[in-house]
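Could you please consider the sequence and fold following this short note?
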Amino acid sequence: MSRLDSFIRRMHAQRTSLDYAARLIVNLPGNVLEFGLGNGRTYDHLRERLPERDIFVFDRQLAAHPTDAPAPEKLFLGDVLTTLPEAVGRLGRNTALANLDIGMADDVATRELLRSMTPWLLRLLKPGAVVVSGQPLTHASLTPLALPFSVKPGRYFLYSRPLAADIRLPNPIGVAPTIWPEAAPLVSIEKQ
């Protein structure tokens, strides 16, 4: 398969997964997080699909066209491991959907970045929140979800933050532990 064909398949998988995730959170209020603004295509897609939601964006540097970039107050600019603690303080546990479109040419470095980000991400996710990721995530507090039927397994990944009466979050250094109260159930995935 050519690199162009692979790119097209990845973009199709991403769009399909994001659209599916948007349907999964229809009854779950909260904001949306976009990790990896790039040129702003995915951010623009999320704005179109979820116009009533606040969308906060994380990126190392701003490279998107001004029409495809968030307002400054919704942009966390800089190293994600530095900006995530700030986001936790500002946004709290109010995220219904997070899209992780990050990665580097070095797979080991990408996995390490995701591993380091996950405890902070979990502090932002509401119970029942959905995570869409271009890379696999491994954390006991995230439950893998079935992909839409047109997305080839391994091409994209979906996870949910489970609903539970007492979920103890991992404790990043210097942050007090948190316990989440039970949340209202979401629409069943199987019925959609």
Summary: Confidence is low (pLDDT under 50) at residues 165-192.
